[in-house]
Specification:
about 475 residues; alpha+beta; OB fold (Dihydrolipoamide Acetyltransferase, E2P); BirA Bifunctional Protein, domain 2; 2 domains; eight-stranded mixed beta sheet; five-stranded mixed barrel; 13 helices; 19 strands; elongated; binds 4-amino-1,4-dioxobutan-2-aminium adenosine-5'-monophosphate
């Protein structure tokens, strides 16, 4: 009852406090500062209140004692309330630890937005061990957690490092549209929508637009959301993902793979050279070691042989693509043959055994998109292969898909025909081959997959701010 009457006033004789963010505190030791944030941890002991304050940039330990811990607000304080703390920053005594190595001795503070107590208290709504469907519903709370926020913070540094590496490699950033009327990776995974009386789609890839930039801007890249209506509930598929794509002119297939490798290695080097990013990687993936160059290159046909040598089989399918089962209902497993798609499970097992990044290259044309350049000659049984590559990473599998593109006009027309594509809406893409064609190639990297590899996350769902997968577009 007494405590209700204590009203805290700021002592006007104290030095004026400096407003700051938690990650900028180090040079302000022994100074009077004020910091706003959210109560991440709260503990009361013998009339003293210990708070860990979180402001997104870091964590700060704060101590409220004497009058500051006796007010009504102090005694009814709740986790996740937003507050402003004012006090003197002190280095923690020898032998004690605190984030940043200091703590705030609070002399004045106020509540900005109190979070509920009781039934509605944060800890009753959410804990990190809740059921996955509850965690998905409460993603807006999950991202307040230490792990989720570290992944997102690392993601931000990753994007900056990628951009810096690409700019250093003389690629220019462009922003292609999300609303499109052409498919890149096949009609089956397009999200269609009504568009002023026409049909439009959400983009699957900005590749075709990047190709049109080459004669205008030179080598280019973009960071754009891509959308895939894939009914895949796997740990590496999202319905919307961040797609980092690059396109380069006057290169060979070998140049393309070397470029992808150097962008990835330069990005990793930049992250490890930055103390905050390096600390995040260490926190999330303590065993991380940067990949060594050059990356292993494995021809598709050799990969098929490798899978068979290692007894890695796949489920047999009938002509319609349905799995064939034995009398007991178990799927029948068969060896891989040239022409087979290497499915996710087999690819993952191979990558995990090899334990290093691998460029798998030279896929059969029949498995790949219409625009891919063909390798000269044919293989066994007249098979045609393409100058295409996937970069596979241990633990995740494919993180990059790239290829050289058909540069010849008539060859492209033949490719549309073979794939049953109506070339009408692709007129602008075809024009690239008509008005000064060039040998060129490019790639797309799935940012969430890359981050899953870098930060050792089990699923890409943990690497997206608000992940979308079949059935989920909330929050
Ligand atoms: O292999 P994909 O489909 O290639 C393309 O879209 C090319 N047009 C890119 C280009 O050459 N410019 O996709 C490229 C990468 C994949 O390697 C994967 O990392 C990621 O995009 N990706 C996905 N990530 C999350 N969820 C999905 N559903 C994804 N589909 C592809």
């Amino acid at each position: 009852e007494e405590s209700k009457k204590i009203v805290l006033v700021e002592d006007p004789s104290l030095p004026k406090s400096i407003r700051t963010k938690i990650n900028k505190l180090l040079p302000l030791r022994s100074k009077r500062v004020h910091v706003s944030g959210w109560i991440h941890r709260l503990r009361q002991q013998k009339g003293i209140i210990f708070i860990v304050l979180r402001d997104g940039t870091g964590y700060l330990q704060a101590v409220l004692s004497g009058q500051t811990s006796q007010t009504y607000e102090a005694l009814t304080l709740t986790l996740e309330s937003s507050i402003e703390l004012t006090g003197t920053l002190q280095e923690v005594p020898e032998g004690k630890t605190a984030p940043g190595g200091h703590e705030l001795i609070v002399d004045y503070w106020k509540v900005l937005g109190a979070a509920p107590s009781g039934e509605e208290a944060f800890a009753n709504r959410f804990n990190e061990k809740s059921d996955p469907s509850i965690l998905a519903e409460l993603r807006h709370f999950v991202i307040r957690g230490e792990t989720a926020s570290s992944v997102l913070r690392l993601r931000s540094h990753l994007m900056s490092a990628f951009r810096a590496s690409l700019v250093e490699a003389n690629l220019l950033e462009v922003t292609p549209p999300c609303l499109v009327q052409t498919s890149v990776e096949g009609g089956a995974t397009l999200f269609a929508l009504k568009y002023y009386g026409q049909t439009a789609y959400l983009t699957q890839s900005s590749q075709l637009y990047l190709e049109t930039c080459l004669p205008s801007l030179g080598d280019v890249f973009c960071v754009q959301e891509s959308f895939r209506a894939e009914n895949s509930h796997t740990r590496r598929h999202l319905s919307e993902y961040t797609h980092l794509e690059g396109e380069l002119a006057f290169i060979t297939f070998d140049d393309l793979m070397t470029h992808i490798e150097s962008i990835i290695c330069s990005t990793v080097d930049k992250l490890l050279a930055d103390s905050e990013s390096a600390a995040l990687i260490k926190q999330l993936n303590p065993k991380f070691t940067p990949p060594s160059r050059p990356f292993k290159r494995l021809a598709y046909t050799d990969a098929i042989a490798w899978l068979n040598e290692h007894g890695i089989q796949h489920e047999a399918e009938d002509a319609e693509g349905n799995f064939i089962r034995d009398a007991t209902g178990k799927p029948i497993m068969v060896d891989h043959a040239v022409g087979d798609d290497i499915a996710e499970a087999a690819e993952r097992r191979m990558t995990d055994i090899l334990g290093v990044p691998v460029f798998l290259y030279g896929f059969p044309a029949e498995l790949k998109a219409f625009y891919m350049k063909r390798m000269p000659g044919t293989g066994e049984g007249g098979k045609v292969f393409t100058e295409s590559c996937d970069l596979l990473m241990p633990g995740v599998g494919e993180i990059v898909g790239g290829s050289m593109r058909i540069a010849d006009h008539d060859e492209l027309l033949a490719a549309y025909k073979r794939e049953g594509i109506d070339p009408t809406s692709y007129y602008w893409f075809t024009d690239q081959r008509k008005y000064g064609t060039c040998e060129h190639g490019g790639y797309g990297l799935g940012v969430e997959r890359f981050l899953a590899w870098l930060a050792d996350r089990y699923t890409v769902r943990d690497c997206s701010l608000y992940p979308r997968w079949p059935g989920r577009a909330t929050p």
